[in-house]
Design brief:
Bound molecules: flavin-adenine dinucleotide
Order of helices and strands: HHEHEHEEEEHEHHEEEHEEH
Number of strands: 12
Radius of gyration: 18 Å
Strand content: 15-25%
Oligomer: single chain
Largest sheet: 4 strands, mixed
Number of domains: 2
Shape: globular
Helix content: 25-40%
Low-confidence stretches: 188-215
């Protein structure tokens, strides 16, 4: 930790948050403890403390954060919706890039696709698709983000009926790499799963955060998906 403080002067960190649409907090900030406590979905505490936490509000924030981290030799970890039981997005030192506020959904009903940002949760996506008679095999927890869910393959609603892990329904993934460059893997709609793997590669470094984070091949909603959607609505 000392190592990073030596390299990042107070001025550096004062300038950095001003470039952001979102917010950033260092370990010395009064709000840091609350941000750290709420990072895991169920409030579970972990004794791993990033030096900085950034709550990104835009893709520019992601790029600025990576630039800042690169300039100061910080490692970067990414938080989608924080539903990892092990809190594995929390790392000592480094910069935690929280993407949960990036939650735009764009639906092309005719093509049967949806472009979603990493913070989109299962309930919101299902609710947005339902009026079009479409559904995506999201996870069973309504708040679970598509981001980490798809990186892990995703055992979604209707998994057995549709016969695939959810990642097989991903067509394309936009990545921002360690140089801050945006790279979109070639459209992929095969079972090779190279899109999601690419996202999970390089030690999960590349944040999947561009505006079309992934485009799921949506399917006509089956009765079971409708039942699940209704159940979610009544449970919330
Ligand atoms: C209540 C509950 C219900 C669940 N139901 C299901 C289910 O039905 N089916 C199922 O398959 N799983 C289920 N899960 C597991 C869930 O899919 C995983 O915990 C998943 O990782 C959560 O996604 P997240 O966006 O919250 O990831 P996070 O917890 O934020 O992160 C998990 C890991 O993925 C990395 N990561 C996340 N987003 C990105 C990104 N954009 N770019 C790069 N790296 C990233 C993080 O760095 C971290 O290593 C459930 C979990 C909970 C708590």
């Amino acid at each position: 930790m000392q190592h990073y403080r030596e390299h990042i002067g107070a001025d550096d960190f004062r300038t950095f948050p001003r470039q952001l649409d979102g917010k950033a907090r260092s370990r010395h900030h009064a709000e840091y403890a609350g941000w750290h406590r709420s990072a895991c979905w169920n409030g579970r505490r972990f004794d791993r403390f990033p030096e900085y936490i950034v709550r990104a509000q835009s893709l520019d924030d992601v790029a600025h954060s990576i630039d800042f981290a690169r300039a100061h030799g910080l490692s970067v970890s990414v938080r989608g919706s924080g539903h990892s039981y092990a809190g594995c997005f929390l790392r000592d030192a480094g910069l935690l890039l929280d993407l949960s506020a990036l939650d735009r959904i764009e639906i092309d009903a005719e093509a049967g696709t949806a472009s979603v940002q990493p913070g989109v949760g299962a309930r919101r996506l299902s609710a947005a698709l339902a009026p079009h008679g479409l559904a995506f095999p999201t996870g069973h927890g309504g708040e679970v983000g598509l981001s980490g869910f798809l990186l892990g393959g995703g055992l979604g609603i209707n998994f057995r009926a549709w016969g695939d892990i959810s990642a097989f329904s991903v067509r394309a993934v936009d990545l921002i790499d360690a140089d801050g460059a945006c790279c979109a893997p070639a459209p992929n709609n095969t079972r090779s799963c190279s899109g999601p793997r690419a996202a999970a590669g390089r030690g999960c470094f590349s944040p999947r955060s561009a505006s079309t984070c992934n485009a799921g091949r949506c399917r006509p909603a089956s009765p079971r998906a409708r039942i699940a959607a209704n159940w979610r609505a009544s449970a919330s």
